[in-house]
Write a structure and sequence with these properties.
Blueprint: H1 3-8, E1 9-15, E2 26-31, E3 37-42, E4 48-56, E5 93-100, H2 109-122, E6 131-139, E7 148-161, E8 164-175, E9 178-190
Antiparallel strand pairs: 1-4, 1-6, 2-3, 3-4, 5-7, 6-9, 7-8, 8-9
Length: 199
C-alpha cells in the first residue's frame, strides 16, 4: 500500500451483496486518466457485490483537515440500548472508543482502521443483526502498531429505505494530537423483517 495513500488518500466503498465462505471472488481495478482507481468485486457468475474508488489528494493543494469530533463518554456495555428511531438521533455524539492499534492479526492496516467505525457503533448500541453498507474514507496521517487510537463519532443521519433502517456516522480517528482518518460510515442497523412463510 502506497505511503502517499495512507497520508492523503481517499476511498469510497459500497457493499451491494454479501460474499459467502468458499466463493471465488474476482477483483478488477482500472485507473482512469484522472488517476482515480475504480474497483469492483464480483462472483464467478459476474454479479457485482462491491464497488469502490480510491484516489490520492494533490499534495500541493494543502487541503485543510476537517474538524475533529470531541471525545464523549461511552455507555457501559450492559447499559447499551438497542438502536431505534427514538435513540438514533442525527447530531448526537457517540461514546469514544480508545484502543491501541493492533496489527498482529490477519487484517491489513486499512481494514483494521475501518474496523474502528464498526466498533464505535457496536459499543454504543446493543446491536442485533446489522449490515455495513458503505464508507467514505479520507486519510490524514499514518498510525503505527501500538499507537493509542481515539475513535470519536457522531450520528450524521438516520433514514429508512426499502424497509431497512439505516444510520450514517461521522467518525474521526485521532492519535495524540494527530488526525489519522475521517470516515462517513453507513450501516443498516435494523434489516427489514422477512416473512418466515416465504422462506
Amino acid at each position: 500500500m502506497a505511503p502517499e495513500w495512507l497520508e492523503r488518500g481517499s476511498a469510497e466503498l459500497r457493499l451491494i451483496e454479501p460474499f459467502y465462505d468458499g466463493e471465488e471472488v474476482l477483483v478488477l481495478a482500472e485507473r482512469g486518466e484522472d488517476g482515480l482507481i475504480a474497483v469492483t468485486a464480483e462472483r464467478e457468475d459476474g454479479t457485482v457485490c462491491a464497488r469502490g474508488t480510491a484516489s490520492i489528494r494533490d499534495a500541493s493543494l494543502h487541503a485543510p483537515a476537517p474538524h475533529r469530533l470531541p471525545e464523549h463518554p461511552r455507555p457501559a456495555m450492559e447499559r447499551r440500548a438497542a438502536p431505534s428511531r427514538d435513540n438514533v438521533i442525527p447530531g448526537e455524539l457517540l461514546g469514544t472508543v480508545v484502543e491501541p492499534l493492533d496489527l498482529s492479526g490477519w487484517r491489513p492496516y486499512a481494514e483494521r482502521l475501518l474496523q474502528y467505525s464498526n466498533e464505535i457503533l457496536a459499543r454504543n448500541f446493543r446491536m442485533g443483526p446489522w449490515i455495513h453498507t458503505a464508507s467514505e474514507i479520507d486519510n490524514w496521517g499514518i498510525a503505527r502498531e501500538g499507537d493509542e487510537i481515539s475513535a470519536r463519532g457522531r450520528i450524521h443521519d438516520r433514514f429508512d429505505r426499502k424497509g431497512h433502517e439505516f444510520v450514517v456516522l461521522d467518525v474521526t480517528l485521532v492519535e495524540g494530537d494527530r488526525l489519522i482518518q475521517t470516515v462517513r460510515h453507513t450501516a443498516i442497523y435494523k434489516p427489514r423483517m422477512i416473512d418466515a412463510q416465504r422462506l
